[in-house]
Amino acid sequence: xxxxxxxxxxxxxxxxxxxxxxxxxxxxxxxxxxxxxxxxxxxxxxxxxxxxxxxxxxxxxxxxxxxxxxxxxxxxxxxxxxxxxxxxxxxxxxxxxxxxxxxxxxxxxxxxxxxxxxxxxxxxxxxxxxxxxxxxxxxxxxxxxxxxxxxxxxxxxxxxxxxxxxxxxxxxxxxxxxxxxxxxxxxxxxxxxxxxxxxxxxxxxxxxxxxxxxxxxxxxxxxxxxxxxxxxxxxxxxxxxxxxxxxxxxxxxxxxxxxx
Length: 260
Fold this sequence. Notes:
This protein is α/β, with parallel strands linked by helices. It has 12 helices and 10 strands.
């Protein structure tokens, strides 16, 4: 059985963590696979949005597969190798040039929260549970993950999440702005699919520009690539899709974008 399943529905792809008996806990090999799939999808012009989810409805991802701790985290060297593989997978996910949506059902714990935070949009069902229990295990959360968490929820909630290590529910996650939206457990699959369908109706060049520009403007000002952002805006303005969008608006019809 594959631990990660890939599905495609038109312009929408799904990455599914497939360890339901372990609440979709993530293995070292799964981290490697995530990086490969993310890179592949980033190069595929036919895919315009990616949904990331867990198999079943009990868990998005309950963190690292603890059955591997003895083999993969038993020494400083092996721990460093594991952490670097995880970072490589998350970086590849960050670098995907199209919107990524985390569909969160049930448990979203530890490494599962890291995965969700590295998605552009997070939608959870009302039964979801969240936590980063590093403090309960005697571990320190990697500084880049602390930075990302702080950017999403702010310093006060980041302190609370990390220092208590406690589990909290979907309503609190929404209050913290950890998730964008909530849906019922029964309707979340259709809700997220409809949400993704609304995204892929839009111009592909604009979606790519939005993602890259948002990545730039959230950097330190000294590190921002202003010429890149200007070139992305110019590319959209000079595109055939912009002409199609204008004509469709005038003619009161749905535009047919080509990504050109």
